[in-house]
Design brief:
Length: about 400
């Protein structure tokens, strides 16, 4: 059976949702739901470099207000005497007051890179700034843990393309945007008939096998997403829809322990406040719907929602009422199972800067090691090579 170039591209597009796993088709006949005590990690990536200083605001710091005369947040919601949170993150403030949110300030890494692409690669691969890795920190987690996995859906990304963070040497997550759309595409007669025709060419044979795994994966994910539909109202934004998809799967019998989402862009060089406010409005409302959904189903204690961005912004505003690429930033952690709540460490020191940029005090790889060891019960030293301890907030 000959494949035209147009058809090959169409197949390739579908196949990006999945990667061939050993004995996949046999494994797809087995049941492997999460155990009752298994924890679930949800990563929300703030793409584009969110401005951390206008997220958690140093309300008593004159350096902040002098350096940001037209974009400083004047009406933040109080967290304590020293810090406030952006007014559009009102539900985050409620979670903070309830002891269901932790904030780690000033997170970064040595010799920071201000390129969006390179810094995101560093965060997603958990590499050093001068080290280039082809695998991600969660992909390597899959490599370590998925010898036990009967289904290759241990990690899912709600997106059309798979991020580096979820790519391992031997195992990779499964990426899709919408379970129903993926399933409908996989059931088209063209793809079904194509899979029935095998080919001796190694590259094309791999494509056929990948297509077969995609068809099976799509059916499994769609079936699980339909088993326990939500009564919770979600925003009509893309992020709201993505969180609704995750909620439907968390409540099902799927075996997924890691979900990966992204929102942006936070690249706010010009007129930052309007852009950041709109993004925060969406994030706030989507997270509120998701958390309420988890709480109403008794699942909030077993989920951990973590946010990160590839870098923060410079301390001083620019001439366009925005901010330029910076360095360190904060991370949010939301869960009903936190051991330590609130602000976990001091706000950034604005008196000690490196040519106008924050100097990080917390290494993001220590955060990853904490999540791997304390939440996912994995060997963080094997996944990260990190041996410098962990935090104790989870």
């Amino acid at each position: 059976m000959l494949i035209k170039r147009r058809d090959f591209l169409k197949i390739s597009s579908l196949a990006t949702a999945s990667f061939l796993m050993p004995n996949f088709l046999k494994a797809m006949t087995l049941e492997n739901a999460l155990e009752a005590d298994d924890k679930i990690l949800i990563v929300l990536q703030f793409t584009g470099g969110n401005d951390g200083l206008n997220t958690i605001i140093p309300v008593r710091n004159d350096i902040y207000f002098r350096g940001r005369k037209s974009i400083a947040i004047q009406n933040s919601l109080s967290l304590n005497d020293e810090a406030g949170i952006h007014p559009s993150l009102s539900y985050f403030k409620e979670l903070y007051d309830n002891g269901e949110l932790s904030v780690l300030n000033n997170v970064g890494y040595p010799d920071p890179d201000k390129s969006h692409f390179r810094s995101m690669d560093i965060w997603q691969s958990a590499s050093k700034s001068n080290e280039y890795l082809d695998t991600g920190w969660l992909g390597r987690y899959l490599d370590e843990e998925c010898y036990r996995c009967e289904r290759p859906t241990q990690a899912l990304e709600v997106d059309d393309m798979l991020s580096l963070a979820l790519k391992g040497d031997n195992n990779k997550a499964f990426a899709f945007k919408d379970p129903k759309r993926l399933y409908q595409t996989s059931q088209e007669k063209y793809f079904k008939s194509l899979y029935d025709h095998h080919h001796d060419d190694e590259t094309v044979s791999y494509l056929y096998q990948t297509l077969g795994s995609t068809i099976n994966n799509a059916g499994y994910i769609f079936k699980e997403s339909q088993t326990k539909k939500t009564d919770q109202t979600y925003p009509g934004s893309q992020l709201g829809k993505d969180f609704k998809t995750v909620a439907s799967l968390v409540k099902s019998d799927i075996n997924t322990r890691v979900y990966y989402l992204s929102v942006g862009s936070f690249d706010t060089h010009v007129n930052q406040n309007d852009r950041q406010q709109k993004l925060f409005d969406d994030i706030n409302d989507s997270v509120e719907s998701f958390v309420k959904d988890m709480k109403s189903n008794g699942l909030f204690d077993k989920i951990l929602l973590m946010t990160f961005s590839e870098f923060g912004r410079r301390v001083a505003q620019n001439a366009s009422n925005g901010t330029d690429h910076g360095t360190a930033n904060q991370m949010f952690f939301i869960s009903g199972g936190l051991k330590k709540k609130g602000l976990l460490n001091p706000l950034p020191d604005l008196q000690k800067l490196n040519e106008g940029d924050l100097i990080y005090s917390e290494d993001f790889r220590k955060v990853y090691a904490t999540i791997l060891k304390n939440w996912l019960r994995a060997d963080s030293s094997k996944v990260l090579g990190w041996k410098d301890g962990t935090y104790d907030f989870i």
